[in-house]
From TrEMBL, chains A, B:
<comment type="similarity">
    <text>Belongs to the gamma-glutamyl phosphate reductase family.</text>
</comment>
<feature type="domain" description="Aldehyde dehydrogenase">
    <location>
        <begin position="11"/>
        <end position="276"/>
    </location>
</feature>
<dbReference type="Pfam" id="PF00171">
    <property type="entry name" value="Aldedh"/>
</dbReference>
<comment type="pathway">
    <text>Amino-acid biosynthesis; L-proline biosynthesis; L-glutamate 5-semialdehyde from L-glutamate: step 2/2.</text>
</comment>
<dbReference type="GO" id="GO:0004350">
    <property type="term" value="F:glutamate-5-semialdehyde dehydrogenase activity"/>
</dbReference>
<protein>
    <recommendedName>
        <fullName>Gamma-glutamyl phosphate reductase</fullName>
        <ecNumber>1.2.1.41</ecNumber>
    </recommendedName>
</protein>
<comment type="function">
    <text>Catalyzes the NADPH-dependent reduction of L-glutamate 5-phosphate into L-glutamate 5-semialdehyde and phosphate. The product spontaneously undergoes cyclization to form 1-pyrroline-5-carboxylate.</text>
</comment>
<keyword id="KW-0521">NADP</keyword>
<dbReference type="InterPro" id="IPR020593">
    <property type="entry name" value="G-glutamylP_reductase_CS"/>
</dbReference>
<keyword id="KW-0641">Proline biosynthesis</keyword>
<dbReference type="InterPro" id="IPR000965">
    <property type="entry name" value="GPR_dom"/>
</dbReference>
<dbReference type="InterPro" id="IPR016162">
    <property type="entry name" value="Ald_DH_N"/>
</dbReference>
<dbReference type="InterPro" id="IPR016163">
    <property type="entry name" value="Ald_DH_C"/>
</dbReference>
<keyword id="KW-0963">Cytoplasm</keyword>
<dbReference type="InterPro" id="IPR016161">
    <property type="entry name" value="Ald_DH/histidinol_DH"/>
</dbReference>
<keyword id="KW-0028">Amino-acid biosynthesis</keyword>
<dbReference type="InterPro" id="IPR012134">
    <property type="entry name" value="Glu-5-SA_DH"/>
</dbReference>
Length: 421, 421
């Protein structure tokens, strides 16, 4: 209880400072925000020795805690990764500023002119795990969109994230922006996470960056709205009217390009007509590429596959494993995806326009694709610049969440002494 | 506990039926939705005797409960009001269908074509008080935007709302749409409201329609997102550079056109320069119109005013009462509104473009106006057609909430066997 009270006070004080900073940020000129981001990039390069020393401390601590090699890799910084962080900051600096953009405008018969104009949301909370670069990425996108941000990194990355955060603050200082625009929760105490999740009125939205465990915890506990996806159970459906060469190319890419990202395909649905026409070539391609294929029904007769269990469908492997199943046409695929999907990204392979239109209309995932790899589910690939994550909720933000989706809007109405009848 | 368990089961069963209906509705043709709304309008007129008989039952019950005259008036239906309900249904039928609209689209260097397309949100819960017409208004807007809706009317209007609901269901049946598209909670039990507020996964958003008591309860208890405004504490600021004739016209209209709506002005801020130039004319206009002016500082010297207490600022009177205060220019007005406003609607009266721009930039109310009456804060006046209410939150919906803001979106991505490098 003492912990919770202390954490509550801490988040209250960070939240109030953020709220005050947000008022200033909402009116900050684009040039000042870009200057802050470029100056932060300079600072990351200038202070790389400090950052790497901080990172070494974190790595020691993580090894003592017995973290896995994969976790240690996510935590590790080096010269290349720091260059990448600096480059990312400069790219966000160069993106267009969404704040103040006129989304739409129109005139009314009363003589009123109405504009709908982008504004920042206010205060964003970001809760992440061991990747220290999220400190810079999330801080940059929040600043670009005129929001104050409270960052709560994983306990393993406390020193590394702190050193990067110091660079962000140096950037803010250089540009004359309030330092409370980008704050870090300065404690390993888990109670601070709970306090953030309940900080209604101080934090407007929470964005969790990390695995299913973290996202699930945030989604179930939060009283503050959350932008997130719990899982990316992406499906590829090879329709009977698919072009074989395109289908082979896309299926392999969707599964194997990178297996650990949320846009990686986890389930291949094959139309019985496709099988009749082309045989088991898609399964064999995957097996040859070293993918473990967990096959259902007669597909399990293909040599080299393993037999799927019911749990393999609707499962996010994030590995060189894919579930595979025969379905009866696009309706079979739609029914399967509705039952087992996570509303993230699904792709149909077909040359038939009506079939593609049916797939697009009947499903309601954040992203639906035709003849394209699910690995394109990414803000950069969408042309949005950097993204803070991919959301599968239906309110406010959906799909890749970039600077624009971190904004709200207000109406500006101009009359000439206009009164309502 | 028994009540809560029963209410939970009830909402669970309504929610599941709504969820199933929502899948069908999301793909329903515009013509079917319009047909359902026009048929419902026909039914309201054809069954007006039944509806008025049901309303008479509710009025008897309400009188026994000792409801105020104002409450009885809100509850009362007559021929005119039923015609108004039918007309409203036909107007929504004629509005453009937001579902399937391409919000924006673009091409990527990879060859991908990306469309952002409007989709329904899913299931909407509407919790309202004694006005039985909300049954038709909310049902119509939800249907137009392809959402299923669960309506929970006030216990006083149970029979009237039920009779109108029967007309909506008849419309759905005529159009071959699922009857569960528009459901009513068939009980006076308050536990049903709590169950709706906690129905995450079944209800996507809750919209409360009613007074501050209802909205406050919903906002504090809900685990489901809420579109609402708690109060409309609208300010009018008369700047030193205001045009006198426009200012007099707008101030009177903003306060007195209708005092009971959320867009009615509750506080008049007068620039000291305006007072020096034009005297106390705005105050005298209000007094002459029969408004009680609760004046602060030297404004209280104007004969006929009463002296304001601190509680009069930031107060929603919804009556022929206004608080009035002198401020030092636009910065004084901004500071006052930031402290006392409810982020609903504020209007500046000025001929100076820079001053107006400052007011527009520094405040973040859902609606900011220049030289126009705050009474224009209304979906119809904005040209959005019918509205389900006005929201002051910053996520998803803001300002007047019409059919368009009851939608979400998805991305449709088309390639040609396109894979990610």
């Amino acid at each position: 209880m003492k912990d919770m009270a202390e954490a509550g006070q801490l988040i209250d004080s960070l939240g109030k400072a953020a709220r005050a900073a947000a008022v200033e940020l909402a009116q900050a000129p684009s040039a000042a925000k870009s200057l802050a981001l470029n100056a932060a990039a300079d600072a990351v390069l200038a202070r790389s020795d400090d950052i790497l020393a901080a990172n070494a401390k974190d790595l020691d601590f993580a090894r003592q805690k017995g973290l896995s090699d994969a976790m240690l890799d996510r935590l590790r910084l080096d010269g290349d990764r720091l260059s990448g962080i600096a480059k990312g900051l400069r790219e966000v600096a160069d993106q267009p500023d969404p704040v103040g953009q006129v989304i739409t405008e129109w005139d009314r018969p009363t003589g009123l002119h109405i504009q709908r104009v982008r504004t920042p949301i206010g205060v964003i909370g970001v809760i992440y795990e061991s990747r220290p670069n999220v400190t810079a990425d999330a801080g940059a996108l929040a600043l670009k969109s005129g929001n104050a941000v409270i960052l709560r990194g994983g306990s393993e990355s406390l020193h590394s994230a702190g050193a990067i955060h110091a660079c962000m603050v140096e950037g803010l200082r250089t540009a004359g922006l309030p330092e409370a625009a980008i704050q870090m929760v300065p404690t390993r105490d888990r109670a601070a996470v709970s306090a953030m999740l309940g900080a209604q009125g101080l934090i407007d939205v929470i964005i969790p960056r990390g695995g299913k465990g973290l996202v699930g915890l945030v989604q179930s506990e939060a009283r503050v709205p959350v932008f997130a996806h719990l899982e990316g159970i992406c499906h590829v459906y090879a329709d009977g009217a698919a072009d074989l060469a395109k289908a082979r190319r896309v299926v392999l890419n969707a599964k194997t390009r990178r297996t650990g990202i949320c846009g990686a395909a986890e389930c291949l649905l094959i139309d019985r007509e496709f099988l009749a026409r082309h045989g088991d070539v898609l399964i064999r391609d995957l097996l040859e590429a070293g993918v473990e294929v967990r096959a259902d029904g007669e597909l399990a007769n293909v040599s080299g596959t393993t037999r799927a269990t019911p749990e393999d469908f609707g499962h996010e492997f994030l590995d060189m494993i894919i579930a595979a199943k025969l379905v009866d046409g696009v309706e079979g695929a739609i029914a399967h995806i509705r039952t087992h999907g996570s509303q993230h990204t699904e792709s149909i392979l077909t040359e038939d326009d009506a079939t593609a239109a049916r797939f697009f209309a009947a499903l309601d995932s954040a992203i639906l694709m035709r003849n394209a790899s699910t690995q394109f589910a990414d803000g950069g690939e969408f042309g949005m610049g950097a993204e803070i994550g991919i959301a599968t909720g239906k309110l406010h933000a959906r799909g890749p969440v970039g600077a624009e989706q971190l904004t709200s809007f207000k109406y500006l109405v101009t009359g000439d002494g206009t009164i309502r009848a």
